[in-house]
Amino acid sequence: MGPNLWGEPKYMRVLELFCGIGGCAAALPESAEVVAAIDINRGALAVYSSNFSHPVDVRTIESIDVPELRNYKADIWWMSPPCQPFTRRGRYRDDRDPRTRAILALLDPIKRIKPPYVIVENVPGFSGSRTHGLLRGMLDKAGYEVEEHYLNPAEMGIPNYRERLFVVAGRDKLNPLKVKRRRAKPLSSYLDQDPDPRLIVNPEEEDIEKYRHAIDIVDVDDPKDITACFTAAYGRSLVRSGSYLKVDGDQLRRFSPTEILRLLHFPKSYSIPAGLPLGSSWRLLGNSLSIPSVEAALSQIPDLE
């Protein structure tokens, strides 16, 4: 491809805000480069840096001023702000939650800089929130073409339910959305051959029987079973945090971080650093992205191929 929309050569430049462990970076084609990946979570950036060579910056989004944001000369601003303010666990506090300050702080810079493309990813509960309304109002007034899509890997042939809302905005006309449906594979193909014995749930230490009716349990022998959405609470909360695998009769085990990486369709070359505690791995993966959904959202960006 030729120069990007800022006159820079060859690559589309991507600014990855709230980058987490790099779900956007993992989905980008070779025609794009990340000019900066920014997050406040040092643990997430340590995992990011172990997999990508892009420059990373540990800081709050609110601390980045307009001249600095403009200086990135980014064609695409990717944003995956905290989802908790728009979830049941976060009590749907919306813009009353301090965690929304970062995305709200970006509204004025977007209006002033007008990057060519903006993509915001969040949970379905983001739609209709006051924060969502402020974002859409700014994008509409700034003259962006905006499309919104609910994307779910479970509808793409992947045995994992992870519905997310994507707000895709462009100063120019957007491409039609392209959702690639994969050939369905059984859940067994995503599992470790030698699972870590620490994944087994000990009923004497955890209230399995008390919560069994509410626990999402999948059976590897059922070809139609799909896993629930894994959240940052996996490993700490038995319910509404992800699925458990039935093994050896009524015994249950958790999914390993590598199994969740496969279900999210991160590249085979991507890995969690050895020695990272299970709890930390689950928290980071629970806040990450499903790569096929990201690829579908990115398909709307012209020249990104």
CATH architecture group name of the largest domain: 3-Layer(aba) Sandwich
Which structural class best describes the helix and strand composition?
A: alpha/beta
Question: CATH class of the largest domain, please?
Answer: Alpha Beta
Beta-strand content estimate: 15-25%
User: How many domains, as an integer?
Assistant: 2
Strand order of the largest sheet: 3-2-1-4-5-7-6
Classify the fold: give the CATH topology of the largest domain. Rossmann fold
The CATH homologous superfamily of the largest domain is termed Vaccinia Virus protein VP39
SSE sequence, one letter per element? EHEHEHEHEHEEHEEEHHH
Give helix % range: 10-25%
> Could you give the distance between the termini?
9 Å
- Number of DSSP-assigned strands: 10
Question: With helices defined by DSSP (H or I, 4 residues minimum), what is the helix count?
Answer: 9
Q: Largest beta sheet, briefly? A: 7 strands, mixed
Mean pLDDT, as a whole number?
Answer: 94
- Described by the principal axes of the CA atoms, the overall outline is globular
> What is the gyration radius calculated from CA atoms?
20 Å
Unreliable spans are none
Architecture overview:
This protein has 305 residues and is of the alpha/beta class. It folds into two domains: 12-181 and 289-298, Rossmann fold (3-Layer(aba) Sandwich); 187-285, DNA Methylase, Chain A, domain 2, CATH 3.90.120. Helix content is 24%, strand content 17%. It is built from nine helices and ten strands. It has helices spanning 23-27, 42-51, 66-71, 101-113, 130-141, 208-211, 257-263, 278-286, 291-298, and strands at residues 12-17, 32-39, 56-58, 76-79, 117-122, 145-151, 164-170, 216-218, 243-247, 251-254. A seven-stranded mixed β-sheet has the order 3-2-1-4-5-7-6, with helices on both faces. The termini are close together.
